[in-house]
Amino acid sequence: MTVSCLIIATSLQTTAEEKVSDKSDSASALNESMKTLDGKTVNLSKYKGKVVLIVNTASKCGLTPQYTELQAVYEKYKDQGLVVLGFPCNQFRQQEPGTAKEISEFCTKNYGVTFDMFDKVEVNGDDACPLYKHLTALDLQPKGKGDIDWNFEKFVIDRSGKPAARFAPKTKPDDETVVATIEKLLAEK
Description:
The chain is of the alpha/beta class and 189 residues long. It has helices at 2-26, 66-77, 100-111, 130-136, 176-187; strands spanning 33-35, 41-43, 51-57, 82-88, 116-117, 154-157, 163-167. It is built from 5 helices and 7 strands; from the N terminus they run αβββαβαβαββα. The protein is globular. The protein starts with a helix and ends with a helix.
């Protein structure tokens, strides 16, 4: 009877360890492969070890000037390990109608964007890409969980790939709360 208890206990311990291991992998927001605006497939795991700012973007929105702040924050912190990932989305009043080429040219010409931009995605609903399904299911402060409200909603991901914060669309990328979150995560090596 002691031997069978030991076998069951060992089995339970192994199962618990596997669940912890699975949880750490599934907690990462960087498990997906996505296409860039120039059509290249990128596995987001390449950004592990960096602090990542993920933003759904649009070219014809009242918040489009946030590209300026996104680029400035990227330039200020990129040498410390920050990357910004832009994901164009046309779900909000069709404010991102362009092709990948048009979006790329718009961002470069009008805002000097040099951070990584990806192909258009859905961020809400049944057709939302897996990255956004994962992010919107998490209760990240200060915004909380649920659907994306509008263009330029922001997620900050830590160096291990774990989502750490979510900010509303009108919270600018250079807002002190966003910057404080980024700086805190950059300081964690």
